[in-house]
Design brief:
This protein has eight helices and 14 strands. The strands form three sheets. It has a nine-stranded mixed beta sheet, sandwiched between helices. Strands 6-11-12 form a three-stranded mixed beta sheet.
């Protein structure tokens, strides 16, 4: 177990999914929140520790990459991995309540929506710079694979395939936009995450200058789907001007931002404003939804 100046301690998440628990060691039992990383494979420990300071029990997990028991690449990652992590966190001795929160960033935001639409026991969902579509899987070298990023019951989840031609502009964002333009409408529909099935309040966060993928448009598509299906829970979409793909909780990292750090969009000031504001909304959602 390792200690931090904030009073937060970290320990392994015991079970079949590799991960870490962050919590205040001497606090009574508290609600749990599971954090899902993006395609870079780096655990969201900064986000988890920051929320743990507010009195939550937070778990970060490795669902692909260089860890035992998980796929090496972002290819047909079993959604059952997330289900097991949800169950493990919910039954942890430090966690109270029968519903946990989900927080996903980027590709993890896609995964958070997918998981929440399929599994029970979830009390609130935050998707930051995520996607409303399931996408084709990629290797760690960013090579396409001809199958889904995700699987369920041993079968690949329906996905939007990447094009075999260079998109106009040849940027990462244009690649995603080009893929949607070229995909058959029925394919896009089947790959659209059924967010209306989520049985929990929902927060969608994006920057209007996201240069990784058009997360603002994806959030708008998700909201449209919620409205068309008469979603029964509260939901909010937050879109921040002059922010890009890098929105995270307040901390020292924000004070040293410069343009070189923001290759996926946004300005330093815009990213600071977005990060400070959205984090208040994240805390408010988890407080209201999980501390009933």
């Amino acid at each position: 177990m390792s200690s931090h100046e904030s009073g937060v301690v970290s320990e392994p998440l015991e079970g079949t999914v590799p991960g870490t628990i962050h919590r205040i060691s001497d606090q009574p039992s508290a609600p749990g929140v599971l954090f899902l990383h993006g395609s870079g494979g780096r655990l969201l420990d900064r986000q988890a520790r920051r929320l743990a300071e507010e009195g939550f029990v937070c778990a970060t997990i490795q669902y692909f990459g260089d860890a035992d028991g998980v796929p090496n690449d972002l290819v047909e990652v079993p959604l059952e991995t997330i289900e097991r992590a949800i169950d493990r966190l919910a039954t942890h001795e430090a966690v109270v309540g029968d519903r946990i929160g989900l927080y996903g960033g980027s590709k993890g935001g896609e995964l958070a929506l997918l998981s929440a639409a399929r599994f029970d026991g979830i009390g609130a969902v935050v998707s930051v710079a995520g996607s409303c579509y399931a996408w084709e899987g990629l290797t760690q070298e960013w090579r396409v694979t001809g199958t889904s990023s995700w699987s369920l019951g041993g079968e690949p989840i329906q996905y939007v395939p990447f094009p075999d031609a260079e998109p106009p502009g040849n940027t990462i964002r244009s690649y995603y936009e080009f893929a949607l333009e070229r995909a058959d409408p029925s394919t896009v529909e089947s790959a659209t995450i059924p967010v209306e099935r989520i049985d929990a309040p929902l927060l969608l966060v994006s920057g209007t200058d996201d240069r990784m993928w058009p997360s603002e448009t994806y959030a708008e598509t998700a909201v449209d789907r919620l409205e068309r299906h008469g979603y029964q829970h509260t939901y909010r979409q937050l879109a921040y001007e002059n922010a890009g793909h890098s929105i995270g909780p307040p901390g020292p990292w924000l004070e040293t931002l410069d343009d070189d750090d923001l290759r996926f969009g946004g300005t330093p000031n815009g990213t600071r404003r977005a990060s400070n504001d959205y984090w208040l909304e994240v805390q408010s959602l988890y407080e209201s939804a999980l501390r009933e």
